[in-house]
Amino acid sequence: MIGPKHVKRKAQIAKILAKHGFGFLVDRVGLGKFVPFHWGILGHRRRKIPYSAPEHLRLAFEELGSTFIKLGQILSTRPDLIPEEYIEELSRLQDRIPPCPVEEIEKVIEEELGKPVGEIFSYFEKSAVASASIGQVHRAILKSGERVIVKVQKPGVESQIKQDLEILEELVKRISSHWEIAQRWDVEGLFEEFAYVLKNELDYIREGRNAETFRKNFLKDQHIYIPRIYWEYTTSKVLVLEELQGTKLTDVKGIRDMGFDPKEIAKKGALMYLNMFFRDGFFHGDPHPGNFFVLKDGRIGIVDFGMVGVLDDMRRVNLLQLIYGIAKNDMSLVMDALYDLGIKGEMKKEVMLRKELEVLFSYYFFQSLSEVKISRVVHEIFRLTYRYRINLPSDLFLFLKTIGMAEGLLMKLDPQFRMINVAEPYVVRMRKLFLSPKFMARRIERNTLIISKMMMESPEKLKRFLNMLESGKLEFSVKYEGEKRFVSDLRKDINRLTVSIITLAFILSMALIVSSYKPGFFRVEYFLALVGGTALIFLGGLMVKILREGT
């Protein structure tokens, strides 16, 4: 049963979903063309063409606000979870967020920093440079003269998101406990991942720390620049960082006008991401065109550090093996890497998935490296994981998504660019590094420490185990996998019995009523028949309840 918390917001969500959800139902049964949603009778914008189911979902997310807009944006990057038509429609949520009035933004800054905006900045631009579901960005100049970018969380967003997350958590738990497919898809795990990402994006201090990590990692790199964070003006809701002066990475004409070769910039961008993946194990997870600039000195500048990915040593080794296997046309290396990375599912589906992947990669193995698009390979992997309902680990998904998007971004600079051409020699170099005595020694030292700890703890744990066994406190449980199916079949039988009992009660009561009723007269038999029929229905429902509780 839905809890009593957040009743007003739940009612609002229910109303909006009902408004758009009805469209889903009639569309699914083929009656969508008969229901004129496009006439505007339910508040939709009037138009000639009927709304599709994906459009209803996008419109519902837009009406529901920041949390659901962010959910839609994240879903739009998950082709392993939802169909392509929904991906395409939800991706329209990315740049459709109206900015807040500047007065509200200035109020947030003053509350967070404890000073009027005029005392902090000599200039604060009234119009927003960008506006997202959580925050918006303004240009400004500090009193000391530095040109900065000010990122401010929109007022009321944090409390709204926390409330919505509580409601979604309640809903997800109910779905998972009553819907078997939700358990198979690990809906609770997906929600926890979404909540984690969203809570992180609410904390601008964390974003600032991410920027500092990138700045440290690329400190000696002559081709990459990370802006400075002004910590004295940064809080969990306000982030002030150095403004980058340059041209957007996708502005080919602007880059040429600056005197740089777009093809060389594309190679720099590829090496930047490969260093993030394999050298540092810490990468920028949102390769959006607006997040990268070519600066006046030819360096690539990066902004927006809210979404990052982390790869441990073994993940990096497996990913190196994956790309090395693709480059060297080695199917066994590719498949071994994919399975070690966690592409697994139900046994029967795994067999079919493996066959499909073998067919996919054998196709690419017949092509030259200059023809292999990593972005296309990634798209095919996502398509197959969706088709066979395979759950991808979150860090693997983010890596695949990012490397695919990065290649697509860099191909705008050079249509002939292929990430695999730059990755092959890079991976060979990194492979030697991972096989070096220095790297192996570090792994051996770490594993030795873990083994030593286990050996130190083993006698105490063994003694505790034997004591529990001797005292009879140790319990063993055996899980029968067929139990779920048995219970499911039993519930189906009870549901059929439910319908049968109530239907029989209804028929008997109607028969009694019809046989005793005469127009124009009230008879005791009629009254008794009515009471008897009601009693039969009540007893049938009671019997069903007892049977249900018994299961």
What report would you give on this structure?
The chain has 551 residues and is α+β, with helices and mostly antiparallel strands. The protein has 4 domains: 7-93, no CATH class; 97-243, no CATH class; 248-435, no CATH class; 483-550. The protein has helices spanning 7-28, 53-64, 66-75, 84-90, 102-113, 117-120, 157-178, 180-184, 187-201, 204-217, 252-257, 262-280, 313-327, 331-341, 347-365, 374-387, 394-411, 419-434, 437-471, 483-516, 524-550, and strands at 121-124, 130-131, 135-142, 147-153, 224-225, 238-242, 246-248, 282-284, 292-295, 300-302, 308-310. The strands form 3 sheets. Strands 1, 2, 3, 4 and 6 form a 5-stranded antiparallel β-sheet that branches. It has a 4-stranded mixed β-sheet with strand order 5-10-9-7, with helices on one face. The chain has a two-stranded antiparallel sheet with strand order 8-11. Helix 13 packs antiparallel against helix 14 (331-341) and helix 13 crosses helix 18. The two termini are 19 Å apart. 28% of the residues are buried.
